[in-house]
User: Which sequence fits this backbone?
């Protein structure tokens, strides 16, 4: 089972313009896939379409054999709650809730707040947030917030993790930390990870890369450090199997 | 979701407090204003029902018109032009066949008791003090069954009016005007020129209602003699088992007889008009307070929805449904409504006891109560709760629905830019 996109397109705006068109691709289970491309090339749009947050204008997305377009709102909610985790460029934490409460929000929806509490503390500890569980978001640093957001996305042990520029608002060190975490949960827990990034160095941490250009799929499986962003000189996190495909 | 709603409310303490105050004042004001109005109203109605009887049967007063005497003078076919048209009132305003009434009333199972009366306007004098007043001739035994006048007797015994001839019960106001006490004599005449009859004061009553306290009661036969109308009565007062039936019964009787038959509420219809006006004022002023409170809630919630767009988006991405989002914002309004209302009702309840300790200057009607009466009828509290809660929920349903409709993807897309 996997995520399969069949010639999907997205039209947006007034007058409508094709932001994405004719994208066909497959995300295999347990894969760590990165999506790269210039700003405005449609990376975020593609991620939202693949992750059920947005609806396609043409084509179809199928997840585990189910057509997203045919799912009811209830099924979508259940699917997002149980199978999907999201990490965004901005952490989107609830400012009124403490760190641990934020992490447990998806579990609260599922009615499993108590049973997952221990796991939530494990995650906090793993991400270097031990002892900060009762802090409010405004009492944490940017890197801590993003790690907290990742902890929240993992609390339900989702099958899929979608990350839209998770390192976008972080400095290099924190960015590396975050990509390392994504890499680790992919390898250790078998979580399928889709990460959008415009940093080719981080993209190289993935098993496979997809490149978007003007809303279309460019050449896939680009190798690390081809041309982009002047980051070619730096290698990123210990990514042992740089491009295993 | 209520957990998060509470957190939102707590995080915006000042706004929450303001919204709460709106509902609080609205419901407290409703409870107090209604309580005072209905308290006094209840007192008034109770007095109307009990001190003057449920139904009055009275001779119809007939006024002469230009042509009402034509037939009797010139036959039915005559066309008469009067140089000075007849005018005035038919003199004998008496019930024509009281015996027929007595039989009908005795046979009617709804009637508990009835008391035939003869009412006369008389002049009282005691030494140099004089006072004109209404003297009601009645059978005291029946009168105390029909009205509560016996309960208000402060000196003597009302029934003693019947013991022997020439005895009176005076209202407190009248007694004061004449300066007499129980056991003393007063003189009664139909007017300055009429013959004078001595009466002895057998009882004094104080109802607290100045109009009633200016009345006097005597034995029916005595008053008939003073008035020069033996065996006649001009009014029959009836008590029913259920006072709520009064208007209905009075209307059917009125259709059957030449007499004027009126229930206590028909006789005092103007008071009910006043009640209606009071209610309009009460509901519209409280309504205004509630509308202001509702607008407060609406504004703050609508603003919160805009400020919390990102929260809404992220909650949706975690699998929270449209309904969860509606509940999140609706429950903020409902929590405010619930707590504001309960605090308001509680405050209203407590303050109502304080209000009751406020003494009144004896006015024409209130002289008997001497303090504010506040009704604590549960229906007032239910109405207040319903009104305040409705205001809060209507005010929050709109922003809540708007929040539910916000498409998370657009918020996330906008947030990423
Ligand atoms: N609501 C909208 N209406 C019209 N056009 C839009 C709308 N939202 C985004 N776009 C356009 O769609 C294109 C793709 O946007 P998208 O966010 O997917 O790009 P991206 O690759 O994620 O860029 P970045 O790296 O800057 O995040 C952009 O050109 C953008 O201007
Ligand atoms: Mg983007």
Assistant:
């Amino acid at each position: 089972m996997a995520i399969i996109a069949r010639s999907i397109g997205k039209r947006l705006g007034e007058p409508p313009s094709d932001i994405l068109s004719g994208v066909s691709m497959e995300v295999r289970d347990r894969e760590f896939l990165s999506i790269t491309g210039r700003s405005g090339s449609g990376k975020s749009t593609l991620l939202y379409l693949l992750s059920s947050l947005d609806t396609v204008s043409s084509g179809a997305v199928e997840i585990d054999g189910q057509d997203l377009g045919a799912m009811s709102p209830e099924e979508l909610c259940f699917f997002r709650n149980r199978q999907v985790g999201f990490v965004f460029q901005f952490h989107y934490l609830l400012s009124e809730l403490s760190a641990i409460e934020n992490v447990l929000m998806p579990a609260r929806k599922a009615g499993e707040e108590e049973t997952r509490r221990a796991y939530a503390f494990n995650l906090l500890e793993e991400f270097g947030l031990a002892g900060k569980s009762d802090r409010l978001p405004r009492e944490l640093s940017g890197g801590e917030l993003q790690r907290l957001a990742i902890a929240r996305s993992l609390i339900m042990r989702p099958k899929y993790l979608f990350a839209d520029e998770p390192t976008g608002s972080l400095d290099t060190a924190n960015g590396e930390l975050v990509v390392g975490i994504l890499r680790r949960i992919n390898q250790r827990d078998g979580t399928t990870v889709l990460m959008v990034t415009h940093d080719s160095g981080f993209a190289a941490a993935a098993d496979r890369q997809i490149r978007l250009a003007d809303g279309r799929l460019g050449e896939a499986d680009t190798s690390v450090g081809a041309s982009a962003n002047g980051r070619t000189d730096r290698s990123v996190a210990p990514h042992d199997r740089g491009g295993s495909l | 979701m209520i957990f998060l709603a509470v957190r939102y409310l707590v995080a915006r303490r000042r706004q929450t407090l303001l919204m709460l105050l709106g509902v609080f004042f609205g419901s407290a004001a409703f409870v107090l204003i209604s309580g005072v109005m209905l308290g006094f109203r209840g007192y008034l109605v109770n007095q109307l029902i009990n001190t003057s009887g449920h139904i009055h049967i009275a001779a119809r007063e007939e006024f002469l018109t230009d042509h009402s005497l034509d037939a009797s003078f010139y036959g039915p076919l005559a066309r008469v032009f009067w140089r000075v048209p007849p005018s005035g009132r038919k003199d004998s305003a008496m019930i024509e066949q009281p015996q027929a009434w007595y039989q009908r009333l005795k046979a009617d199972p709804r009637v508990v008791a009835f008391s035939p009366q003869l009412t006369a306007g008389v002049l009282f004098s005691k030494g140099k003090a004089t006072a004109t007043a209404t003297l009601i001739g009645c059978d005291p035994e029946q009168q105390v069954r029909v009205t509560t006048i016996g309960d208000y007797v402060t000196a003597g015994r009302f029934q003693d009016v019947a013991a022997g001839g020439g005895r009176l019960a005076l209202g407190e106001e009248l007694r004061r005007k004449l300066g007499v006490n129980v056991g003393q004599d007063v003189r009664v005449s139909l007017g300055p020129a009429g013959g004078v009859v001595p009466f002895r004061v057998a009882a004094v009553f104080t109802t607290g209602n100045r109009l009633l306290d200016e009345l006097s009661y005597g034995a029916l036969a005595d008053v008939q003699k003073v008035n020069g109308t033996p065996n006649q009565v001009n009014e029959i007062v009836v008590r029913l088992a259920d006072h709520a039936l009064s208007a209905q019964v009075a209307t059917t009787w009125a259709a059957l007889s030449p007499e004027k038959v009126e229930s206590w509420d028909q006789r005092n219809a103007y008071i009910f008009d006043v009640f209606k006006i009071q209610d309009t004022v009460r509901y519209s002023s409280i309504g205004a307070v509630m509308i202001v409170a509702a607008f407060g809630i609406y504004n703050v919630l609508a603003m919160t929805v805009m400020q919390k767009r990102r929260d809404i988006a992220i909650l949706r991405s975690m699998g929270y449904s449209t309904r969860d989002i509606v509940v999140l914002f609706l429950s903020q309004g409902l929590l405010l409504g619930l707590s504001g209302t309960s605090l308001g009702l509680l405050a209203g309840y407590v303050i109502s006891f304080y209000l009751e300790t406020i003494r009144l200057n004896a006015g024409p009607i209130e002289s008997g109560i001497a303090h504010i009466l506040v009704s604590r009828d549960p229906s007032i509290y239910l109405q207040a709760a319903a009104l305040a809660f409705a205001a809060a929920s209507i005010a929050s349903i709109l922003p809540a629905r708007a929040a539910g409709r916000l498409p998370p993807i657009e918020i996330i897309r906008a947030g990423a830019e």
